[in-house]
Input
Amino acid sequence: MLSLSQNFAPTPKTLIGASALLIFVAAIFGALNVAKVKTLRSAVADTSTTRAIAEQDRARREKELKAREAAIAAEQAQLAERKDNTGAAEGQLTQILKEKRQLEAKLQDKEGEILALQKQIEEKQPASANPGAPSVVELQAQLDDARQQLDSGEREKSLLSEKLQSVRERSSQLEDEKKRRAVARGKVGVRGTILAVNQAYNFVVLNLGGRNGVEPHSEMLIVRDGSFIGKIRISSVEPASAIGDIITSTLARGVQVQPGDTVIYAGTNS
Output
């Protein structure tokens, strides 16, 4: 037994070898831990980048929505102003037409008086028979003045008619634009699903189409598990389906669109 204990007694060389082995094992575990930490840090960095991109896109979408709402409000205000201007122009036109009728009646009276005087002259009746009656020269001057006023009224009437027509056309355009935007706002939020994806040409096929109100050049948001991942722009529309081009600049790094992803109608850019 004494001999056996002496055989297994630690020697400096044995202790140094064991220490070296332990140091080597510790170095291996340390390297593995460092690699694992780097991997975790990289994953956290990628997640933070994706989240930051999503937050930026969400902020941009909110900004675009507010800008569209402000533009619609401005157009509605312009439409109301156009309506007021149309009413004022119609009132002015009515007044001009009334003045025109009065001038025409006055002109007819003057022409009647001139004809009567001319008839008296032809019949050689003295013009002094009616001392209060104006002379032919005075009546002609009054007639010329009435004609000038009538011509001025006609020109003003023509200008007002053109202005009124322009205002009516602009008002009609604003009404049409208002209706179009109202319809577009009603479509915002319509949801669908991506049926197929062509990664080579960056386009997708949707289960939404013209019957759902989808229009060419409109944009749709791509959502997966409740998170925004990118956008598509509609290129062609069929009654029950549509094809959209993937806007690659909106995709986060390493993210690809997949069949089954949800799409949400975001409106048109026009």
